[in-house]
Design a protein that fits this description.
Layout lengths: L3 E5 L5 H10 L3 E5 L32 H4 L16 H14 L6 E2 L2 E8 L3 H4 L2 E7 L2 E7 L1 E4 L6 E2 L15 E4 L13 E5 L3 H10 L5 E5 L6 E2 L9 H5 L2 H7 L4 H15 L16 E2 L3 H6 L3 E4 L2 E4 L4 E3 L4 E2 L4 E4 L3 E2 L31 E3 L10 H15 L12
Parallel strand pairs: 1-2, 1-7, 2-3, 7-20, 9-18, 10-11, 10-18, 11-14, 12-13
Antiparallel strand pairs: 4-5, 5-6, 8-19, 15-16, 16-17
């Protein structure tokens, strides 16, 4: 085999990373801290520390036609939008088809990734791992970081005075698993990303009342578009991408927003964004709002022992639970080269560290696309492994 590559994580980005290494004649070893593959898409009732976690009902927001890896289509009998269990099944099929499992070391954490003393000439790394309490250090020629960015919950309690006195329950959306425990409760959900919208819809069928608090609103996209086709199949096309470079973005946004308002006027529902931002994908939220089971509220400014007070001076009394759907923060504590500031890290093509003397480290899947992450991760892996193998000899940062 060729150069030795450490792949960190065996989820949606780690699996194609292993395969890309094999395709380029490299020798991969994948380190997965848990006991199985799947990362974010492996549901577990009890969340594990420093590991992504989803709720039981999660359905992926991108269609199978747009999310599959290029060389292994998702089975035809699978639904267009898959439940998380189906996504995990697909990952198992992909792994087994390409015989990737033998390259994965489970229950093995990466403790540190450090440049070797001769890095400037060799580009090599010392990788220290831990398995069953025993640490080992090995030399690798290159690193693929595939740990994702949905692991550490962002819980900004300091922004909500009085939460420490609140007598009800509060939790991050990461710790939400099913609606039964909120039966008959009055629940405030803070945040209007995909998780906040999904949880609001699900709880609206069991809770006595759901309040969805948002500072800025959000555009709501449907999974199902014209004539019943998956929305991403119709809109994420080469033609539309070409138009993005021809038509002013402000005009394109106005056209898209007008189409979204044809289904329901976001202003009338209290959802019109103050700024253009990443939209939410949710088919049911407008129906739950118009039925009154979800009430859209402005930003929470304060909690009392029992109540939530909003910045429009309204008060909702006798709140039983607060769910913070406030996103995630990420970091790379095992690698000092990857510096995160304000939840961002500067990467060329969202992949490479320009300041490295040798391009032997790549970050995969650290991106929030309007569409599926899997094909993007696959392309990042293919580029990175070609760089590692020395096949991209003209690779430079001046190429756009």
């Amino acid at each position: 085999m060729g150069k030795k590559v450490a792949v960190i994580g065996a989820g949606a980005s780690g699996l194609p990373a292993i395969k890309a290494c094999l395709d380029e004649g490299l020798d991969p070893t994948c380190f997965e801290r848990s006991d199985d593959i799947g990362g974010l898409w492996r549901f577990k009732k009890d969340p594990e520390e420093s590991r992504a976690s989803i709720y039981n009902s999660v359905i992926i927001n991108t269609s199978k036609e747009m999310m599959c890896y290029s060389d292994y289509p998702i089975p035809e009998d699978y639904p267009n939008y898959m439940h998380n269990s189906k996504v995990l099944e697909y990952f198992y099929q992909y792994m087994n088809h390409f015989q990737l499992k033998k390259y994965i070391k489970f229950k093995t954490s990466v403790c540190s990734v450090k440049k070797r003393p001769d890095f400037a000439t060799t580009g090599q790394w010392d990788v220290t791992t831990e398995h069953n309490g025993k640490q080992e250090t090995h030399v690798f020629d290159a690193i693929l970081v595939c740990v994702g960015h949905h692991t550490s919950p962002n819980l900004p309690l300091h922004s909500f005075p009085g939460i420490e006195k609140f007598k009800g329950r509060y939790l991050h959306s990461r710790d939400y698993k099913n609606p039964e425990e909120f039966q008959g409760k009055r629940v405030v959900i803070i945040g209007i990303g995909n998780s906040g919208g999904d949880i609001a819809v699900e709880l609206s069928r069991t809770a006595s009342q759901v309040f969805l608090s948002t500072r800025r609103g959000s555009w709501i996209l449907n999974r199902v578009s014209d004539y019943g086709y998956p929305a991403d199949m119709l809109f994420i096309t080469r033609f539309n991408n070409t138009m993005k470079h021809v038509i002013p973005s402000s005009l394109l946004n106005t056209i898209a927003e007008s189409k979204l308002n044809q289904r329901f006027d976001h202003a009338n529902f209290g959802l019109k964004p103050q700024h253009r931002q990443h939209p939410m994908v949710n088919d049911d939220l407008p129906n739950r709002i118009i039925a009154g089971t979800v009430l859209v509220k402005s930003n929470v400014v304060k909690f009392t022992e029992t109540d939530a007070i909003f910045d429009d001076d309204t008060v909702e009394k006798n709140i039983d639970a607060v769910i913070f759907a406030t996103g995630y923060s990420f970091s790379f504590p095992f690698c000092e080269e990857l510096k995160v500031q304000n939840n961002k890290v500067s990467l060329y093509k969202y992949t490479f560290l320009p300041e490295l003397e040798k391009q032997t480290l790549a970050v995969i899947g650290l991106i929030q696309p309007l569409g599926a992450i899997m094909p993007i991760s696959e392309l990042q892996c293919r580029l990175a492994t070609r760089v590692f193998a020395g096949k991209e000899t003209e690779f430079s940062y001046s190429k756009i």
